[in-house]
């Protein structure tokens, strides 16, 4: 057995960002939406840099127009994840794209997604939970609407609230109202920080939003005092090495700080972010990390246990995941 065959936990996956290109092309065809600018000549997603990536992402997402489309998306995404050995995943789902921030419309999208996830679980044994995600460059008012959608549907399926989007815009603290609302609704919190923003963005995430996990967080490595704070507060990083390499943060896997962070004692986990955009899969991430750092099954299982312990799900679900990771426990 290679490390690629291990059962895996994925904590950082954008729901639309996991859409296979063929799926988006099919929907575009059905709905007569022009997505020619979304793809390159080889049929993969085409973008120049992070900000362009975000606009291509939104253009691809524009073909998803109904709850039924999100049900089909969910089926396609979970089939691919299950084929990669993922047994539990949390995906980022945005009310902005699912009903435009309206609570009643959001509930319809969510229902369709949950139904598809239930079918996928019965078929492939993969468990999905949702993290409602606001989009930073849509601004704090839209984020409040997303947080209200999250609060109204918080429970054992919608388990968290987070923020993605352009880290270059505004400050984490601009979104404190939305995060406070989500916290009041007993949702657990994460935000993208320390990807395109430096260590200061991670500090703001910890101090101004009081999150339990950080999406990426890798640029914390530039500030030893911050690395210590991550260790002291037992913050879990949702690290997406292949995404960081494609978006130009690091030239290759060997130069990626995930090993230095882990060796320092930070809780690191492994995810794909938007796998087809970054020409990656969970199997490939494990293979590349094995090649770059020599990590073996014991290392990867330890990181999967870290991920299971940092998952926002309830205790019974966590226990079931841990059993899948190591049937002896
Ligand atoms: N990073 C930040 N925001 C995003 C991403 C991402 O990878 N995908 C979708 N929104
Ligand atoms: Zn992300």
Tell me what the structure shows.
The two termini are 20 Å apart. By secondary structure, the protein is an alpha/beta fold. The chain has an eight-stranded parallel β-sheet, with helices on both faces. The chain has 13 helices and eight strands. Helix 4 links the parallel strand 2 (86-93) and strand 3 (127-135). It is 47% helix and 15% strand. Helix 3 (67-83) packs parallel to helix 4, helix 5 runs parallel beside helix 6 (176-184) and helix 12 (297-310) packs antiparallel against helix 13. The chain has helices at residues 21-31, 50-61, 67-83, 103-124, 140-153, 176-184, 199-209, 224-232, 241-246, 258-264, 282-293, 297-310, 315-325, and strands spanning 8-14, 86-93, 127-135, 158-164, 188-193, 213-216, 236-239, 267-270. It is globular, with a radius of gyration of 18 Å. Bound molecules: hypoxanthine and zinc ion (ZN). Zinc ion is lined by residues 12, 14, 164, 192, 215, 273.
Helix content: 40-55%
Q: What amount of the residues lies in strands?
A: 5-15%
**Low-pLDDT sequence parts:** none
User: What's the end-to-end separation, in Å?
Assistant: 20 Å
Helix count from the secondary structure assignment: 13
| Coarse shape | globular
Secondary-structure class: alpha/beta
Instruction: Describe the main β-sheet briefly.
Output: 8 strands, parallel
Distinct ligand kinds:
hypoxanthine, zinc ion
């Amino acid at each position: 057995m290679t490390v690629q065959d291990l059962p895996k936990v994925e904590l950082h996956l954008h729901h639309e960002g996991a859409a296979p290109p063929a799926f988006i092309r099919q929907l575009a065809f059905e709905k007569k939406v022009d997505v020619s600018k979304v793809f390159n000549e080889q049929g993969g997603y085409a973008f120049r840099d992070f900000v362009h990536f975000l606009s291509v992402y939104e253009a691809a997402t524009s073909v998803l127009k109904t709850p039924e489309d999100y049900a089909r998306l969910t089926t396609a995404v979970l089939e691919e994840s299950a084929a990669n050995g993922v047994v539990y995943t949390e995906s980022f789902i945005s009310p902005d794209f699912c009903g435009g921030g309206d609570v009643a419309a959001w509930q319809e999208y969510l229902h369709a997604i949950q139904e598809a996830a239930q079918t996928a679980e019965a078929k492939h044994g993969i468990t999905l939970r949702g993290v409602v995600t606001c989009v930073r460059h849509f601004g704090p008012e839209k984020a409040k609407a997303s947080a209200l959608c999250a609060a109204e549907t918080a429970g054992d399926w919608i388990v968290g609230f987070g923020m993605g989007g352009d880290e270059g815009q505004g400050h984490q603290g601009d979104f404190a109202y939305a995060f406070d609302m989500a916290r009041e609704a007993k949702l657990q919190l994460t935000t993208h920080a320390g990807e395109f923003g430096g260590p200061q963005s991670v500090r703001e995430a910890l101090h101004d939003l009081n999150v339990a996990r950080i999406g990426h967080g890798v640029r914390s490595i530039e500030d030893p005092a911050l690395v210590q704070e991550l260790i002291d507060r037992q913050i879990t990083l949702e690290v997406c090495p292949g995404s960081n390499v494609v978006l130009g943060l690091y030239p290759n896997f060997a130069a990626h700080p995930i090993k230095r962070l882990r060796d320092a004692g930070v809780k690191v986990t492994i995810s794909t972010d938007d796998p087809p955009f970054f020409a990656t899969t969970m199997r490939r991430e494990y293979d590349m990390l094995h090649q770059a750092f020599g990590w073996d099954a014991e290392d990867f299982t330890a990181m999967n246990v870290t991920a299971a312990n940092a998952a926002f799900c309830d205790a019974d679900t966590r226990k079931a995941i841990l059993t899948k990771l190591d049937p002896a426990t």
